[in-house]
Amino acid sequence: MKKRIRKKRILIIFLIIELSIRIYLTNVKEFNEFDYYILNIEGVPFAYYNLSYYDYAKQKPRILLIGDYITMHKGVEGKNIANKLEEKIGTENEIINFAASWYSYPEELSLIQNKGLDLNPDTIVVVYVLNDITLDNKKRGILRVYLKEGINQFKFLTPAFLQYINMKRIESNLTKFYENPTEWIDNYYNDYQDPTQYNGFENYLTTLSDIQKEKNISIIFTIIPIFARLNYSPHQEMVEKIFQSCEKTTLTCINTLNTLKNYNLSQIKEDDQDIWHPNSKGINIISQLILEKIIWKK
User: Fold this and answer.
1) Which of 68, 137, 155, 171 makes a 20 to 30 Å CA pair with 130?
2) Closest C-alpha to 104, from 161, 42, 21, 159
3) Is the pLDDT of residue 286 over 60?
């Protein structure tokens, strides 16, 4: 009799915890902080930063920016790379920021081929970050955003609290990973040493080069480092390897690390914990390097 009562109590406790977590998680809306929305994180139904150019008639020479969140990111001045370019270019050319958060190079290429070319750009600026080589870029980012909301997808009573604990463990490991720039750099360094992954990346560069020749579009491939340990040897080797592969194509290639490493990190990155995003000064430096490579068309 006592065992039955004990079992019922345990079951009731589990149910209370289960329901409490579900109620708590239902009220958590972590995704509201972003000023864009995602139609489908898998690929080209894609994330638009600005939907206003859906049927945007071309009236001026057009520059299209492609990249992940770093291309959308705004420093304390509230201006991203596109905004900075607009300031420098003036009104004789127009810039469309076609960036999509968490995209990696296969998705960015798909975005160019399926939507970007329809906008008839004269110049495409690809803002390539070192973690764009792997789809884990997206998976790691999405996990952090949907960590709590994901548990709500269970359709029947399960040990949600155990799943929650497990996801919190994963989040904790990711946070430690974010806090260790050297581990990030070494992780991606290994990706670039993997022949299969790097062959895929070089095919991507070749495809961009083919698009440039076939469509008579100037494509500027801009390499963005991780904003940590800029003089760390594997970091520099990665960027240089990418740059050399780019130079073998007809693309215009920019190695921003060569310029950024001349600054103290505190001068060009957002904050001590953020290894991905430049501050306003860093954004300005990157946009100036891009500006110097743009071929003007009247």
Assistant:
1) 171
2) 42
3) yes
Q: Domain ranges in the chain? A: 31-291
Q: Which residues are CB-neighbours of 139 under 8 A, at least 6 positions away?
A: none
Average confidence (pLDDT) over 77-92: 82
- By three-state DSSP, how is residue 220 classified? strand
> Residue 234: helix, strand or coil by DSSP?
helix
Could you give the CA distance from residue 167 to residue 159 in angstroms, rounded to a whole number?
A: 13
Domain 31-291, CATH among 3.40.50.2000, 3.40.50.970, 3.40.109.10, 3.40.50.1110: 3.40.50.1110
Place of tokens 């440039």: 212
Q: Which two structure tokens, joined as six digits, stand for 135? A: 């789809």
Pull the structure tokens for residue 78: 């509230």
Inter-helix orientation angle 136-146/160-178, to 10° = 130
pLDDT digits (tens, 9 = 90+) for 237-271: 999 999 999 999 999 999 999 999 999 998 998 77
Q: Residue 74: which pLDDT band, with cuts at 50, 70 and 90?
A: confident
Is residue 221 within 8 Å of residue 177, measured between CB atoms? no
CB neighbour list of residue 146: distance below 8 Å, 6 or more residues apart: 30, 31
The widest CA-to-CA distance across the chain, in whole angstroms, is 89
Angstrom distance (rounded) from CA 235 to CA 190? 11
Does 1 score more than 70 pLDDT? Answer: no
The residue assigned the tokens 């420098």 is 88
Q: What residue type is assigned to position 119 of the chain?
A: L
* Phi, then psi, of 55 in degrees rounded to 5: -120, 55
Bridge partners (DSSP) listed for residue 95: 63
